[in-house]
Queue: 3 jobs
Job 1
Amino acid sequence: MKPTILLTATYDTKGRETEFIKNEILSQGVDCITINVGVGEQPVEEADVSLYDLCKNTQYEGQELMSLPRGQAVAIVSEVLERYVSLELEQEKFHAILGLGGAGGTQIITQAMRALPYGIPKIMLTTLASGNTRWYVQDSDIVMFPSITDIAGLNSFSRMIYSKFAHAGVSGATWYARRYKLFEQDFMSNVPGKIGLTMYGTTTKCVERSKRRLEELHFEPMVFHASGAGGRAMEKMISSGIITACLDMTIAEIGAHIVGGLHDAGPDRLEAAVYKKIPLVLVPGAADTIVLPPMHDVPEKFKTGRVLNIHNPTMTTMRTNVEENIQIGQFICAKLKNAGPQVKLFIPKGGLSSIDQPGGVFFNPEANEALFETIKHGLKDSSVEIIEDPRHLYDPGFGEAAVDILIDLMKQYY
């Protein structure tokens, strides 16, 4: 089968631009199927797949979507597009999905993209690409492609952008058609051996030691940046059975969720490993840290009475206090209280990050102790063993010891 691209757009406002992109794709010997998801006026250009086609064999078949309130129509089109592309991929009818849209189109198309598995190329040409895109990308591998100008006409500049976008899709579809199967078997295998780890800049040295130890033992470590998206992605891959054991060494996402930091992974953090009953060693690394915007954008409520650190020009970190660490501990206990003995906590009493040590800007033993005591009290009647170690997270041997605990659990449960 020739490489084929699904090109999805709001044809009522972006039909000419979509047809230009389609012709660019076809010029490279790749097939292209266009899909209209516009809920406005009847488009001038006709897509290969219409709104009517998307609604076939659903509860919405025969409805006049364009007569509904916009919000309701967008929700329906999002649902039917997600169903349509999922069924098409099951039948291996395309090798990449591309979308172009503004606010409404980006919402509709990325919802469908997120329903597709990792690997299939997903590229979204959008006017929103330079803003906060986490709501559109979430834990997927969508590539957000900036349109720079609005997607509102063809001119010398926009044609260049659209052509570049089309050729990115051609490359992705060609790769998927010819190369993806070479990786799929290894990636999707659920043979015990793929181990999830979480990391920050301030936990890197410890996680790197653990990673090397796992590689020496012929396991396959998969490291996730605890940036919110990273934690969600790891939870998703645990739920899907790809990751079969977890060394969760960076939990700053929990504090971000509680306090309102940038790296919020949501309320479901720590749930997947417990639900799947896989071996989990939880180390409260970076529980001392909340990531905030650049210093000039830090919320006023955090500018007085708090320890702030300029991590880099675009990121400020804030030291968690006693009250916040108690809340972080309570969150952990709520998630782990019903876990089985395949879960252990490994606590570095000497410090939780590279800057949480004597002389470090985040050194605060009192705040750490509040976290540790909350965890010990909350899990005292559970099946979760808590192991306290006097060392600092960065001390030689701590990262390797965490791996040894995990390996012992894996021997018991696999």
Job 2
Amino acid sequence: MKVKNVMTEEVITVDNDASLREAAKLLRKNEISGAPVVDGEEVVGMISEEDILRSFKEEKSFEHDLWLPSPFELVEIPIREILEIREYKKLLNQTGKEDISSVMSDKVFSVGPEDDVSEVAEIMTNKKINRVPVINDSELIGIVAREDIINSLVK
């Protein structure tokens, strides 16, 4: 079976100058977990929910110390929790403003419309990726996700 028979032709793309917040909104709005990142017509990377979450986890995580409070500190605990929540919201907001180029995968594995689906499945499993852009004459014409391949098996 050929890629052109299973690919999704209407590709949702993210501009390379988009923020993480904009990319996340686009993914959620379209109910997808990842998309190609484009600079004009050229695919320059891939962005996924996992990339966005990994970025937040790696750079913005909180570390909590284990401690037993004294009776006086028990009064301070609610205040500390409020401050922590505010700081957490602030970090979430800052993360959302970051440019996606800092977290996207810039190594793009692409296929052509005449390639065999088994080749795409092999690329996905070997490279541990969930979607592959379909390129024809330097033009993005579709995308193949794992779901597309699985759906083709049950038709």
Job 3
Amino acid sequence: MFWFGPHRCIVFCRPEHAQIIFTDRHNFEQSPLIMPYFDLLCPYGISLLTGAKWKRHIRVMLPMFKHCCQSLTMNIIGFIGFDYDFDVKTDSPLKIAFEDFVSYAVFIMMMPWLPRWLAKRYLKFNWKYQRAHRFIRQVTEKIVEEEQNKQYEAENYQPKNLTASLVSSVNEDANDQKISSGLTRAEMLDEVLLSIMAGYGTTSAGLSWFIFFLSKNSHVKQRMKEELRQHNLMTTDDVEYASPLTEEKLSSLIYCECVTKEVFRLTPTISVTTRMVTSDTIIDNVPIHSGQIIFIGLLNIKTDERYWNKNPKEFIPERFLIEDKNYHTYAMVPFDDGHRACLGQDLAWIVLKLIIIRCMQRGIIFEDTQENTGGYEEKLACRPKNLAVRIRFDRH
């Protein structure tokens, strides 16, 4: 049992329980606690929707993400998902606005006990949040406007990225009675904003954890480089050249895949997810009534010694080659699961694996320091609280 603010929740922390919950879409639906009060910031984001409205949005969003993954056209979130260069530097206005927006989003979501009217007033009169929100909305609308101009000027235009597909789906008469009616402009803008936030949050958190783990496990770096050499994928003396990565070459890098998998297994990017019970049911002799909110402890499951042979709290990519090769399907769920699984999970996986491989190709070394103590910092995705590494380049 767990109290989340005023909400009494039942917590399940075994993969068998997770499998029952995730595969039964009729008895378990998205919970309002998945992102508390986030509808005050982004009311039409698909993560918050249920019922007919969710079905209408998923009808538009799911094919887009599948297409992006299958075509392997994403290099970075901005260019691939949105065909737009965010030009994010350390002190750029967009980066500052985005970080402010995320910090207030996390702040408001971590206080479910706060009355809704007070949360609304807090955001309304917080000038720093309002400034960040306006700036991000302007950037989002600029992305959409540029795409609309492209589609208006071109004949027989075929959408090539997420924004193009979203813009093509705009229909101000869209309604929940007709699932295939598309999205309104307001809904489309929220989906663009949520996609940017989700894409940035999970990928940057995953990369941060990769850097942390690699700085603590130098033997992993050596084994990755050996695998790249075996496939002639290490960079030459010409630092501007990097061997092309095809889909076939990516698939052949087994150990690099294990490293990516271990990063997502051991990191609490999404440490918990939640559902609402829609009709009375029983899980493992535990009666659950309609309207009850349940939590699934994803991080607990991913580090449970009963389901992993090697020490599950240690970073050991080799586990997926031998002892833990045939792990329980629901012992590792990094992106939620079932019909409410993260739409961009395949994309996030590919992006992180590509970044990891490119870092190793370039001979980038992350050295440990005394300040590199890890810990957890909750944002949209959990990341290392204290990440301090020394970076150098090894050309050998």
